[in-house]
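Worked example 2:
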Amino acid sequence: MGREDEIIKERLKKVKDLRSEGINPYPAKFDKKDSVKECLDSKFGKSVQTAGRLMTKRDLGKISFCDLMDYSERMQIVFQDKETPSKVFEFFRKYVDAGDIVGVRGKIIKTKTGAKSILVEDLKLLTKSILPLPSKWHGLQDQEERYRKRYVDLIMNPEVRELFRKKSIFWKSIRNFMEKQGFLEVETPVLENTAGGADANPFVTHYNILDIDVYLRISMGELWQKKLMVGGYEKVFEIGRQFRNEGMSPEHLQDYTQMEFYWAYANYEQGMALTEEMYKDVTKNVLGSLKFKTREFEIDMGKKWEIYDYEKTLKKLSGVDIYAASKKDIEKKLNELKVKYDTKQDKWKLVDVLWKNYRKEIAGPGFLVNQPVEISPLSKRKPEDPRKVERFQIIIAGSEVGNGYSELNDPIDQEERFEEQAKKRKAGDDEAQMHDKDFVDALKYGMPPTCGFGISERFFSFLVDRPIRDCVLFPFMKPEK
């Protein structure tokens, strides 16, 4: 029997012994009057009553020391002979282990080493821990185990708890910003007959009562929110989960949170001005500064944002004229760069693969504009150059962290683009958009000029310079065998 097995056996015996003595090792409540941080901020001599998890236990005979941790802070508690009632001290020694959750009452004191502590006068066992915590020094070393046992990761690593506190600030800041700008928060369907609003491969599930297959949404209700523009709303946004059945990378998830807004009577240039203001506001709220380092780039959100023309920037970086080049020319360039691609994709999909390769060199912050219409099936064409669309993508640290455009509201043009996308889908492009007749019908009633924009939690992962899976509380994992 290994050491951990011995610990588990010993703790299970303690649970049994407690119950035999009429003591519930898992009581229903405790009157927690003070957080640990409030205890730390209290004056010496003050009586406090708090609760949390015991992270350590050091029994030195006539005195014992423990570290007590709750959501707010961590501090030392002390059990001392002739100061702590003997009955309490004996119970602590006999039944309490590191990892247990306890409630304590006592007074704030200063120990001989100068540490502000709680001298325990009473203790109540609130939850008996069966499995021992990882070593203080080694913790959870394997990254997959940290994801799988995120609850232990949170116990052992205060910086992980801080990460998710910042993530809460991130989404709260976006919601507050949108509401201050007069946008109404809405909810749209997660299950759809047609997966629309993005170039992505959807998850499929079955609707039992209707006996039909449906899709989990791949956008934050883009086509639904545009229908709200048809219906008379002028400023709406939604924050929620969306799902894309695609590959994993440090920047991609299959199940993630996104915000999208739709703004009637505005175009992509107004959207650029609004989103620049929003990104600066969110960055300041999350980090306390407009400057940060991420993916080895030094970013200053406060400087003048650059404008990157898709055609000109790609020609400058690659030497390729995308409108003059053939599919073979693009493939030749990708082969030179040793970039993987799907030979079944059309020329413009390969052009975008080429762009994404060179995009890695661009620090930002800035806006990518003037994308080809072939890779933007929902964007309005530029009147002065119909080959291009009124679209903008926010570029930071070599990646796209936001996407918006002047929405296409011409139902005839939209239907033609859907038909072209349907041909690509039939030819094997699983990411090509589906034809949505109901959406085209909505456009035929008339949608006002509209700017739409989407931002996902990828931007948060850039702000904190972590792979995106690190920034998910419970990333999806394969079942353990």
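The mean pLDDT is 93. The radius of gyration is 29 Å.
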